[in-house]
Backbone:
């Protein structure tokens, strides 16, 4: 009988995994690189990300209309409007405009009635910070916005840029090599037609698809004969 390689000893799966983890140096295997924030989707953060600036960085109008001091409208009622004078009691604003320093609310343009000579009337009171995006409403400077070891999403990319983070430190992608083995294994890249006792190698492509979905970079070498 020809000499054959026979596995006479086995170890439990848990032990095998533990040995593999012990043998791997995570820090040596996973380097760190800086990438543009806009290209970081799918990458894994190497450290926590701290916001450099707030978003928004100013009190911003959230509607088209007029900026007012809410207190000046508290007496407004249906049938008993309050009259506001342009430049004194209100300032016209559009969505995204900075709120004037002495104003603390926005009234939608649909809710004001022109009264001539730069005068407007309102029939409902505004409340402080009505229709206003306050400083730091979305992101506050100096706060952590993304933790370490988080896979960055498309939404995270937007948060990074809004927080003034234009580059981010991420782990370099793991690189794995698959080596198919066996005399009976045919290289699919050659588009072969298998004969009896032969199979077209495909397992490597299943594993490559899996590791790509994890953000790793796979590569494959052509099938290797048993005696190599």
Residues:
């Amino acid at each position: 009988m020809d000499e054959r390689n026979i596995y006479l000893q086995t170890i439990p799966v848990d032990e095998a995994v533990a040995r593999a983890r012990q043998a791997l140096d995570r820090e040596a295997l996973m380097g760190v690189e800086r990438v543009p924030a806009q290209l970081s989707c799918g990458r894994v953060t190497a450290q926590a990300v701290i916001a450099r600036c707030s978003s928004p960085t100013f009190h911003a109008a959230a509607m088209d209309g007029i900026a007012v001091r809410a207190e000046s409208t508290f007496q407004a009622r249906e049938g008993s409007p309050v009259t506001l004078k342009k430049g004194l009691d209100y300032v016209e604003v559009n969505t995204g405009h900075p709120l004037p320093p002495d104003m603390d609310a926005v009234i939608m343009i649909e809710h004001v009635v022109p009264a001539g000579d730069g005068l407007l009337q309102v029939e409902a009171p505004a409340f402080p910070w009505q229709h206003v995006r306050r400083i730091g409403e979305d992101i506050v400077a100096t706060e952590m916005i993304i933790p370490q070891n988080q896979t960055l999403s498309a939404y995270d990319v937007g948060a990074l840029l809004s927080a003034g983070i234009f580059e981010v430190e991420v782990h370099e992608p793991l690189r794995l090599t698959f080596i198919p083995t066996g005399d009976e294994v045919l290289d699919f890249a050659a588009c072969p037609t298998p004969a009896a006792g032969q199979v077209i190698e495909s397992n490597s492509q299943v594993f490559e698809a899996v590791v790509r979905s994890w953000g790793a970079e796979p590569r494959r070498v052509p099938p290797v004969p048993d005696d190599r």
Q: What stands out?
A: The mean pLDDT is 92. The helical segments are 13-23, 26-29, 154-162, 203-213. The domain at 60-133 is CATH 2.170.190.11 (Molybdopterin biosynthesis moeA protein; domain 3). The two ends are 21 Å apart (CA to CA).
